[in-house]
Design brief:
It contains 10 helices and 9 strands. The chain is α/β, with parallel strands linked by helices.
């Protein structure tokens, strides 16, 4: 039996769970005080009772796309009423893969503003809408990527004194094959990485040569990777750059952390 590893020992504050992949109720067994639940479409939205039970043990935030029916503050917001009062929200524009054609056409800026005004202590996802998110207010919820430290320092130097949370896929192991199996595909979907990879290259542990070199660098640009001490050192760098809360997405399921 593999020995579990600690998110807290790696300097991580919160865990992000994908309900299409894991039973979100297991988040209560992680050694963090906050759990965020990613949005992967209405079919995977946990029930109100599941979220309420989880919130009895940890702080819970649910990602809610402001362009999606059910969470649209300027339209159909019926799903908001179904969220337990003990659950907070992460407001995002919404990944196009989880939106209908009509939802994708909706204006983001006024919906973020209206969503922030209607929420208590909202987090606002910045991916692809950085200026709109900053203008809307709330805790800025950043995605780890190349140049993150530089962008965060620039934000702080420009006078932003609000909270910043950072989302990062995380693999707490120094086994390179395990890292590539968990994060290789994720990194390969990023445009700069896709452009650098050889055609038809494997994007997991089967990668060799140039593809493996590109992926090994990329997973460290886009994720928190390595043994607990190495990740803790990287998290410390991010905190120095301006991050207040580090949110890890356990990219190898939850078992290694339980």
């Amino acid at each position: 039996m593999l020995q579990s590893v600690s998110l807290v020992d790696a300097g991580i504050d919160a865990a992000a769970l994908k309900p299409a992949e894991v039973d979100v109720a297991r988040g209560a067994d992680l050694d963090v005080g906050t759990v965020t639940v990613d949005y992967e479409g209405r079919d995977h939205l946990p029930s109100s009772s599941t979220l309420a039970a989880l919130a009895e043990g940890v702080d819970v935030r649910v990602t809610t796309p402001v362009r999606a029916d059910g969470f649209d503050p300027l339209g159909d917001d019926s799903l908001v009423d179904a969220l337990p009062s003990s659950v907070s929200r992460v407001l995002v524009a919404g990944h196009p893969a989880y939106l209908t054609d009509a939802e994708r056409e909706r204006a983001i800026a006024p919906r973020l503003r209206a969503g922030v005004a209607a929420c208590r202590d909202p987090w606002v996802g910045t991916e692809g809408v950085e200026r709109l998110a900053l203008a809307a207010g709330g805790t800025q919820f950043e995605l780890l990527g190349p140049g993150a430290d530089r962008r965060l320092r620039a934000l702080r130097q420009a006078g932003f004194d609000g909270d910043i949370a950072l989302y990062a896929p995380t693999v707490l192991t120094d086994d390179e094959d395990a890292v590539l199996d968990a994060l290789g595909d994720y990194a390969a979907r990023r445009t700069p990485v896709a452009e650098a990879l050889p055609d038809c290259a494997a994007t997991d542990a089967a990668a060799t040569g140039r593809a493996r070199d590109v992926l090994s660098r990329a997973v460290r640009d886009y994720g928190l990777v390595g043994d607990v001490d190495s990740v803790a050192d990287r998290v410390a760098e991010l905190r120095t750059a301006g991050v207040d809360t580090v949110v890890a997405y356990p990219a190898r399921d939850l078992d290694p952390f339980l």
